[in-house]
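Example for tutorial group B:
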């Protein structure tokens, strides 16, 4: 056996290629802000922008030209309080963004991240009791309220990223009761307490004011626990399961793929983007590494990839997939 026989030229490499990256695999994250006429580059995420709602129509045209078919929205509200009230307001920043996108680009598939951290004064993903314990019931009921409000605004899918136990079941019930049975839930099921989120917290203004997220996000050392989390969310009614971050957690993705028949998403997070973007810009690695990073995430088992590189994927595929 001489394995190099099947690497000799482009044609044979394509014939034996096991993993093919396409534009159907990628989802682009967008950060929406209050105000008008705003397209401001995010300092921690070069090449990514804060956009006001009136700028979204142009952004949708750019995304369509790049072949991007799905976005996930993150809100950066002006008003934060102890209740995360701007997250479930019908006039909330994401609710308005969903309407703006649907008005200008009805074919764009719009997913909304659901969490409290961007809307709450303390930057945490949950409410706490007076003794410092997580107030799970109150958190889940607010997450449900946010989800219903986003469904009402016309969102196509919701994606809870908080990591509270039992939230998928409650959100599903709330959506169904409000008449949104057909809105799917993509659960951040195995979300790790990761320093790879560093640039995002700056972009979304959601750094915790005290402590960290280790009492609700997962310990990076654990793999079996990730599978338990995934099992629970599937039982509770999640339609898509997510692993996050992606590149340092490919073993989790591979194990998840073996275990579940659910569609599997991976989030190539802000820190992964920043490392690769900067390394390529500095000339330390060539651009092919961007394609490699994505195709490897797919090879590990992801059917969907949330990536800040989504706009570049068409070009990367054309340049490096040899199809
Ligand atoms: C909010 C949320 C975070 C990310 C997605 N949703 C930050 C966090 O949990 O601290 C991270 C995304 C990224 O780093 O690109 N819960
Ligand atoms: Zn959060």
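The residue assignment follows.
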């Amino acid at each position: 056996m001489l394995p190099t026989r099947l690497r000799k030229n482009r044609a044979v490499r394509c014939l034996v290629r096991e993993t093919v990256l396409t534009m159907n695999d990628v989802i682009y994250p967008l950060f929406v802000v209050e105000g008008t006429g705003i397209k401001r580059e995010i300092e921690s995420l070069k090449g990514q922008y804060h956009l006001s709602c009136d700028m979204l129509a142009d952004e949708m045209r750019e995304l369509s030209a790049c072949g991007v078919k799905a976005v996930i929205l993150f809100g950066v509200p002006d008003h934060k309080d102890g209740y995360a009230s701007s997250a479930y307001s019908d006039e909330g920043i994401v609710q308005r963004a969903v309407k703006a996108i649907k008005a200008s680009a009805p074919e764009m598939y719009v997913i909304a991240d659901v969490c409290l951290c961007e809307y709450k004064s303390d930057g945490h993903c949950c409410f706490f009791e007076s003794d410092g314990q997580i107030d799970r019931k109150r958190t889940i009921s607010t997450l449900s309220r946010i989800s219903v409000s986003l469904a009402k605004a016309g969102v196509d899918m919701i994606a809870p990223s908080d990591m509270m136990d039992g939230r998928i079941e409650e959100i599903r019930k709330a959506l169904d009761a409000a008449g949104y049975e057909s809105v799917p839930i993509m659960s951040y099921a195995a979300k790790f307490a990761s320093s790879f989120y560093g640039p995002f917290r700056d972009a979304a203004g959601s750094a915790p004011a005290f402590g960290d997220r280790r009492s609700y996000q997962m310990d990076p050392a654990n793999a079996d626990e990730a599978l338990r989390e995934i099992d629970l969310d599937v039982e509770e009614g999640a339609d898509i399961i997510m692993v996050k971050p992606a590149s340092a957690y490919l073993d989790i993705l591979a194990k998840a793929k073996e275990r579940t028949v659910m569609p599997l998403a991976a989030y190539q997070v802000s820190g992964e983007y920043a490392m690769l973007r900067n390394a390529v810009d500095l000339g330390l690695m060539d651009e092919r590494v961007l394609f490699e990073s994505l195709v490897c995430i797919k090879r590990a088992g992801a059917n969907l990839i949330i990536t800040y590189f989504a706009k570049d994927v068409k070009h990367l595929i054309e340049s490096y997939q040899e199809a």
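The CA atoms of residues 142 and 233 lie 18 Å apart. Compare this with the pattern of hydrophobic and polar residues in the output above.
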